[in-house]
């Protein structure tokens, strides 16, 4: 693995980390701060999760898709580590077959779960409790997404 494929990056609060439809290039490890992942369905924000230090975002698209199918936005100033998709795939491909199969299965199940959450517009009250996911936040997130297009 090359060291150039493992890069630190800062995101300020309300900055988009990745967008729906953007090509997946990295696995994103949160080192400091928090990132919200969400989809917008029929004009409604559907939160998928909040990742904090030591957690990843974008992993559900890493193995099964070429493009992200959600948005990620920094909800606090963040420091992240971008780990090249090619490096991750190299590690997985050099692993035993059962590890490759397990990795692909877990990514597929996570993606399917996110699809169900989106399809039925499920909003986790535990997840949104600290977010105050109200009309004001939905407008803010839609505005952030709109600026990126």
Keywords:
single chain, 149 residues, alpha+beta, 4-stranded antiparallel β-sheet, 8 strands
In total, the number of domains comes to 1
Cross-sheet strand order for the largest sheet: 1-8-3-6
Radius of gyration: 15 Å
Q: Low-confidence parts lasting 5 or more residues at pLDDT below 50? A: none
Class by alpha and beta content: alpha+beta
**Approximately how much beta-strand content do the residues carry?**
25-35%
Rounded average pLDDT: 86
How do the SSEs run, as a string of H and E?
EEEEEEHEEHHHH
In CATH, the topology is named Jelly Rolls
The number of E-state strands comes to 8
Q: CATH H-level name... which superfamily?
A: Jelly Rolls
Name the CATH architecture: Sandwich
Cα distance, first to last residue?
33 Å
Number of helices: 5
| Residue share in helix | 25-40%
Identify the quaternary structure here.
single chain
| Largest pleated sheet | 4 strands, antiparallel
Shape descriptor: globular
